[in-house]
Amino acid sequence: MSYPDFTIDLMLKAALAEDLGNRNLTTEALIDKNLEANAIVLAREPLIVSGIEVFERVFQILDHQVKTIKHFPNGSKVEAGTIFLEVRGKLRAILSGERVALNFLQRLSGIATTTRRFVESVKGFPVQLVDTRKTTPLWRSLEKKAVRDGGARNHRFGLFDGILIKDNHIAAAGGIEKAISKARQTSHHLTKVEIEVENLDQFEEALSAGADIIMLDNMSPDEIRKAVAQAKGRVLLEASGGINLQNIRDYAATGVDLISLGALTHSAPAVDISLEISSFG
Questions:
Q1: Are 18 and 257 in contact (CB under 8 A)?
Q2: Per the CB 3.0–4.6 Å rule, which of 50, 160, 234, 265 could disulfide with 108?
Q3: If you average pLDDT over residues 232-244, what whole number do you get?
Q4: Which residues belong to the active site?
Q5: Please, what's the b/e burial string for 51-61 (b: 16 or more CB within 10 A of its CB; e: otherwise)?
Q6: What predicted TM-score, i.e. pTM, was given to this entire model?
Q7: What percent of the chain has pLDDT over 70?
Q8: Domains in the chain and their CATH numbers?
Q9: What pLDDT digit, counting tens, does each position of 101-142 carry?
């Protein structure tokens, strides 16, 4: 994860506080404080596992004696009906952390599962799938880890670790050539400059201006194929915008180097996972 663990802990503690407040009324009314139990975590549909460390940490925050047994690591494909985790410890802690732990696990496994579908859909093409910054606020490090568990790679983490010149930057700088020139002047020699273009005329201008990476935004596969032919491997080319499971192979077939997909994170549905008590004592 990109964030230090203490930042993740703050988020998990806030999530627990949101759900628990200062007590678990139902559990305290029904469950003896010393009762121990074993619980299984069951995949209700085929999925790619992600978020195990976060799931485990939720229970550790509540009671450090709660143990999580992992049958499959992050990135594993499990079928419906598979028990892929177990939780053992005080039942009050298990029931108090259940919903928060599952929320994280279902969401992150959903991203990994969606990512794997996209990755598998472009098998045979030498293209790399990457994510975007279209993530849930404060979940970015977790969601980007889920993307990696699904088999894709990460684009820049934030505004601080990469130069990506977009349409508003271009307008403010006075054009594509000026924007690239200014970025070169203010960045060190190890920093690559990426710029977003929307048509082949802008592409030609960015190529002539010496961009390291050119993002071809909302361009058709035919337009991208022409850009690939013109670039002749001199720059990395990234396709983005309007790409989905139905058309991604058309984009991969253009010869583009990268395809960036906001859908990996912003549109991934949570998967169906349940936690069930299997035994007591």
A1: no
A2: 50
A3: 97
A4: 99, 134, 166, 196, 217
A5: bbbbbbbbbbb
A6: 0.95
A7: 99
A8: 5-119+268-280 (3.90.1170.20), 153-260 (3.20.20.70)
A9: 999 999 999 999 999 999 999 999 999 999 999 999 999 999
